[in-house]
Amino acid sequence: MIGILDSGVGGLTVARALMARLPGCDMRYFGDTARTPYGDKSREAISACASEGAGHLMRQGATLLVIACHTISALAADEIRQRYEVPVFDMVSVTAARALEGSEKGRFGVIGTRATVESGAYETCLRRLCETAKVFSQACPLIVPLVEAGYTHRPEAAMIIKKYLHPIKVRQMDTLIPGCTHYTAVENIIRRKIGRRVRVVDPSAAMADAVSSFLEAHPEAEARLRRLRSPVFEVSDVTPHWERTAQALFRQRIRLTHSAPVSSGG
């Protein structure tokens, strides 16, 4: 089973891409809606919450983990890898690799939560892959609340996004990394405001491609994935708000079930 770990419901955009690329594959999604957002939490709090979520998915039988949250990927992916002996895919390393594939000048703009940006994870990953990479990161703390409030089509959303993207435009970056899964909901605005000269990476598609390629190259891992089971969508708090937001992000009606992970014991 593929376990999909998220801090809220933004990672449903990743789950949707995975399910489209790997139809019939057994998947279980867990989003920590009771404690979201993670983007303004400390590294210690993010690590503790992510560890509990990953432990929950492992107890349910995950044989491969997808961290469908850039913040968890930036601050807790290494710890999760060290704890569990299964393949672990994180948004930062997968998205950075995809960004490098199509960059002409090696100039990257990154937008994300405060925690993701302040971690420097994208800078570290991009420069590890390409020493000459130029990276500018911009924290965008208001985009996630706008998406979850359903304000993506209001003029305020476009104004705020334009302001966040301005420093990246003036620095003439050639590639933009939307470093938060919620940003898929405002992808059209981001593309319009950043301009046609800037290539915008699709992190969800990059993750689906990475997992699919891994399974093709590792038939023993694919053999451990049960087939023809309906996906399970679990969250730590179910409310009408989360049901509406989940449906908007997944782009079809899904059933959220409640699950409260227990502490992994550190």
TrEMBL record:
EC code: 5.1.1.3
Pathway noted in the entry: Cell wall biogenesis; peptidoglycan biosynthesis
Binding positions for substrate per the UniProt entry: D6, S7, Y38, G39, T181, H182
Catalytic residue positions: C69, C180
Keywords assigned: Cell shape, Cell wall biogenesis/degradation, Isomerase, Peptidoglycan synthesis
Catalyses which reaction(s): L-glutamate = D-glutamate
Gene3D superfamilies the UniProt entry points to: 3.40.50.1860
GO MF annotation list: glutamate racemase activity
Pfam families, per the entry: Asp_Glu_race
InterPro entries assigned to the protein according to its UniProt record, in alphabetical order: Asp/Glu/hydantoin_racemase, Asp/Glu_race, Glu_race
Superkingdom of the organism of origin: Bacteria
Example GO BP: cell wall organization
PANTHER family the record matches: GLUTAMATE RACEMASE (PTHR21198:SF2)
Family from the record: Belongs to the aspartate/glutamate racemases family.
Reported function: Provides the (R)-glutamate required for cell wall biosynthesis.
HAMAP family: Glu_racemase
Protein known as: Glutamate racemase
Organism listed in the record: Desulfonema ishimotonii
Gene: murI
